[in-house]
Amino acid sequence: MLNDKKILIVGGSSGIGFAVASLAQKNGANVVIASRNPKERAASFFEKADESTEIHTFDITIPEDHFRLFESTGIVDHLVITVRPVIKSSPFQKIDVNEAKHAFETKFWGQYQLIQVAQKHLRESGSIILTSGIAGEKIFKGASTMSIINCCIETLCRVLSVELAPIRINVVSPGFIEPKPTVIEEISKQFPAKRLGSVDEIASAYLWLMGSQYTTGTVTVIDGGARHI
Fold first, then answer.
1. Which residues pair with 213 in a beta bridge?
2. Model confidence band, residue 52 (pLDDT cutoffs 50, 70, 90)
3. What distance in Å separates the CA atoms of residue 111 and residue 8, rounded to the nearest whole number?
4. Which one of 67, 92, 115, 179 has the lowest number of neighbouring Cβ atoms within 10 Å?
5. Could you tell me if 10 and 114 are in contact, meaning their C-beta atoms sit under 8 angstroms apart?
6. Which residues are CB-contacts of 124 (< 8 A; sequence separation ≥ 6)?
7. For the chain, first and last CA: distance in Å?
8. What's the CA gap between 191 and 169, in Å, rounded?
9. Is the pLDDT of residue 47 over 70?
10. Angle subtended at Cα 201 by Cα 199 and Cα 204, rounded to the nearest 5 degrees
11. Which of 78, 44, 72, 46 is nearest to 58 (CA)?
12. Strand, helix or coil at 79?
């Protein structure tokens, strides 16, 4: 499905991004990983990577890095963005506003500005896949910042699917993924799926969206039914 396709994965050295990189490579893609500390965070993957794998140190909050990245990669077939900010769960009244602003700079404005640069370097038959999360729909105490960010990302997807056509724009919205603290693992037993998800299960959705030429402007939810409890 992805033979000789160039897939750029921003945030690809850990978690979901790492799983997407590994699965894409297994499916014949030429993988490009861009991350703050790619080699240190995913050494086992890079030991197995062949000459078709490119590795770039990249900070999505630095606009100059966006231009530098695409000057190095050239034209790509698919762009996957899986970056996530480090932000503590906190009641709205006690949120550090600077921490909330940094989270927006990383996950929302970082993606926003990267796409402005990326659109000129994507094949018309290609796609951009963003990442939101369960907090965009189901409300959790202490997660107001991420709820707002994820909703913004999903709205951005719908807008860009119209404005950047024929390039396809989609979002993957993952639920809780292994490993998680014991309290989340206990809560997951109430989900219809009765468990937490795995990064490999989430990664398969990104590959499906790359190959589905008639899918754009959508949010693919993979949460084990968590939004319904």
1. none
2. low
3. 13
4. 179
5. yes
6. 166, 167
7. 36
8. 29
9. no
10. 105
11. 72
12. strand
